[in-house]
Design a protein that fits this description.
240 residues; alpha/beta; 7-stranded parallel beta sheet
């Protein structure tokens, strides 16, 4: 599959930033921007350089999904997560897919393990890895000399975790290359706030105020009426 232009560009930018001495990088790309392809391509290049890689996630489902992606990409790897105690030598692979929770349990609590001696660390869904446990793990990797690269679609609040932000495609760039499709968006009816007195601009409604102006019907905004009006053929639709 031919990559979108922003993907190989991001790989080049990450490699250049690390070469310049940056050790705490955050890559952001909108959902659907192909962050996993970027991660795999970086791993390929790092393996070619003889480097060891740790890829962190924090949910069992994501661990399983990422393992399948690495397999499909042809990246041999071990899995450091509950239920993956392998005796096939995979623990010696240069690439290790690591569960934050398992590392916390086996490295710091039971002290059965030490962290994978990674030269490069990738953090998937970096916005989920800001708790003290994750910080301790990532700090230990950095103190050992590793460069840490976090990937997320929502980089807000990560300033204390990463020093440099790299943008891998904006929504308009992703639409231009076909990674995202243009969406027609329709919002619901607006509640009538005239019944509320002394409501200041920008102030959140209390629960009592919400009950006063919002109906208790299970569907709000005349959803079916507008669905019929906008989509009489009943084509596939997402209601959020």
């Amino acid at each position: 599959m031919t990559p979108w232009p922003h993907q190989p560009l991001c790989v080049e930018q990450v490699q250049a930033a690390i070469a310049q001495g940056h050790k705490r990088l955050c890559v952001t790309s909108p959902t659907g921007g192909g962050k996993t392809w970027i991660m795999c391509r970086l791993i390929d290049q790092w393996l070619e350089e003889g480097l060891r890689v740790a890829l962190y996630t924090n949910r069992r489902l994501l661990t399983e999904q990422l393992s399948l992606v690495l397999d499909k990409h042809g990246i041999d790897h071990g899995v450091r997560a509950a239920g993956h105690d392998a005796d096939d030598g995979s623990e010696f692979q240069h690439v290790q897919l690591c569960s934050i929770q398992t590392e916390q349990s086996r490295v710091y609590r039971s002290k059965r393990w030490t962290l994978h001696e990674a030269d490069r660390v990738i953090v998937d869904e970096a916005h989920c890895h800001t708790a003290p446990t994750a910080r301790r793990i990532l700090d230990e990797h950095r103190e050992a000399g590793a460069a840490v690269v976090g990937f997320t679609a929502t980089p807000i609040g990560l300033g204390q975790m990463y020093d440099r932000l790299l943008v891998a495609g904006t929504p308009s760039e992703l639409r231009a290359c076909g990674a995202l499709v243009r969406a027609e968006h329709y919002g619901p009816d607006e509640p009538d706030l005239r019944a509320l007195k002394a409501l200041r601009e920008g102030e959140d409604l209390s629960e009592r105020q919400q009950r006063k102006v919002m109906p208790v019907a299970p569907l709000w905004g005349r959803v079916w009426e507008w669905f019929e009006r906008l989509n009489p053929e009943h084509r596939p639709t997402i209601l959020f």
